[in-house]
Specification:
Length: 185
């Protein structure tokens, strides 16, 4: 499918079509920031698959203006969309400039903790661990949410992943701030 000359909005709609999705996704990704307004509009598309794919696109094309739109998808009725939004908000590896799009702790931590404890889908709870864990070393509420999930979630997968980020877990140890040391002269 040649995507040259096809408007961004038409490509966003094509994200809901199985045979057209890969080409539309690649074309929007290639268009970069110029496609972000159409992708942001796609976050409210009636088709859950389109909303999910728009979250995945924003994972790589995230701009500060889209953070609120992406955060709103944490309440999406489709679990796949909530998972994609959680990943886009928590994953720093996918973004070329993660520092410019850091999620706001005051806004996101309570929502992420609520998803971690109350979402009916264990896959959503598993992904919520990563967003909560962004603040594991800086916020006692984040730490408490991880410990609560590690010790009491009904899903063994959620308990295991929360344990990685909770105190004593391998990721918690690896990401711990290093103690300050005076240098010898």
């Amino acid at each position: 499918m040649s995507t040259t000359g096809i408007p961004d909005g038409v490509l966003v709609d094509a994200l809901g079509s199985e045979p057209r999705r890969p080409d539309a996704f690649r074309a929007l990704l290639r268009r970069g920031p110029s496609a972000v307004p159409a992708i942001r509009r796609g976050l409210t598309h009636p088709d859950g698959k389109v909303r999910e794919q728009c979250c995945k696109l924003l994972d790589e094309l995230l701009v500060p203006e889209a953070l609120d739109d992406l955060t709103a998808r944490l309440d999406d009725p489709d679990a796949r969309v909530r998972i994609a939004a959680l990943h886009a908000l928590s994953c720093e590896r996918c973004k070329p400039d993660a520092d410019s799009c850091r999620p706001d702790r005051a806004t996101l931590l309570p929502r992420a903790a609520r998803l971690l404890h109350d979402d009916p889908d264990p896959h959503v709870r598993t992904h919520a661990v990563e967003l909560v864990a962004l603040w594991a070393h800086a916020d006692p509420d984040a730490l408490a949410a991880l410990v609560r999930a590690r010790d009491g979630d009904p899903s063994p997968v959620v308990r295991k992943k929360a344990g990685w980020y909770a105190p004593g877990g391998p990721i918690h140890r690896r990401t711990a701030p290093k103690p300050w040391r005076a240098t010898r002269r």
